[in-house]
Specification:
The protein has 277 residues and is of the alpha/beta class. The protein has 13 helices and seven strands. A hairpin with a 4-residue loop joins strand 3 and strand 4. The radius of gyration is 23 Å and the shape is globular.
Length: 277
């Protein structure tokens, strides 16, 4: 019996990790964990899963992010669609806040924004402890993989220790994505909380193959054990504002005939009152 097994209390604290890999494979396998995830997700009970399998209590009364806010998609199925070809892709890097990057967790996330359909896709996630060269190459690999227009890196407290090597590696690899330096202007709690309206309105979609860690951190917010992935994703709000990117109005068609609209104007009346000073 699992509950009477020696060490149950310590194992019971967390049966699996952020990526749903078993911490006690002799008692419960990765496959069994995955079945539990799928069942709880289908039933809209991921809060129960996190409480029972990961010992992360989530109060529905005061939770900022709820399981029902999470929408998923299949990258392979949508990868060749016209919608995906028009995405504006960005890669955001949240390095460990220490020069010894490998001593704490760093996160790299790739997002695609579709202004016309009001969707933000979390397309790729890489996180963990990385040496500096691993961080640079993992980030640039993602830029190439997603054909990202922008590489945005939080430089707070690291500055030239992170900026110069990153740009140098971009030059070595002949990568010309736009570089954006991100500076933490507020506490990360507030930055992450700004994602809530986007989730509540159903604007954000998760790649079903790589967003487990992100969902776990969001569900545990603000008492999450790790913050790296959700903090990196939260920077998308600042990036959109920096670039003055906003969702298009409802019903706006990209292929609308602008010239025809101008033809409908009474140009004679407009020109008649025109003056040169």
């Amino acid at each position: 019996d699992l509950m009477s097994a020696p060490g149950w209390l310590s194992i019971r604290q967390e049966l699996c990790d952020d990526e749903f890999k078993s911490n006690a494979p002799t008692m419960i396998t990765n496959e069994e964990i995955q079945k539990e995830v799928e069942y709880h997700r289908e039933q809209g009970m991921m809060d129960v899963f996190y409480r029972e399998f990961r010992n992360i209590p989530i109060s529905k009364e005061d939770a900022v992010f709820m399981p029902e806010y999470f929408k998923s998609y299949n990258e392979v199925e949508l990868g060749g669609s016209a919608e995906f070809r028009n995405l504006r892709n960005v890669v955001i890097v949240d390095p460990a806040k220490t020069v010894k990057l490998h001593s704490a967790d760093s996160a790299i996330v790739g997002l695609g924004v579709d202004r016309s359909s009001h969707k933000i896709y979390v397309r790729d996630v890489v996180s963990g402890k990385m040496h500096p060269d691993e961080l640079y190459n993992e980030s640039l690999d993602m830029v190439e993989r997603l054909r990202a227009h922008t590489l945005a890196v939080e430089v707070t407290s690291l500055n030239e220790f992170i900026t110069q090597p990153f740009k140098n590696q971009m030059r070595v690899r002949n990568i010309f994505a736009q570089w954006v330096s991100l500076n933490a202007r507020a506490k990360k709690e507030g930055r992450i909380a700004m994602l809530a309206p986007y989730y509540r309105q159903g604007f954000i979609y998760h790649n079903e193959s790589c967003c487990q860690k992100l969902e776990g951190q969001l569900l545990g917010f603000p008492r999450s054990k790790l913050w790296d992935v959700m903090d990196a994703v939260a920077y998308i709000v600042e990036l959109l504002e920096k670039d003055e990117q906003y969702f298009d109005p409802e019903g706006l068609e990209e292929d609308s005939d602008i010239e025809a609209e101008y033809d409908e104007l009474d140009n004679d009346k407009l020109i008649a009152n025109w003056r040169v000073h």
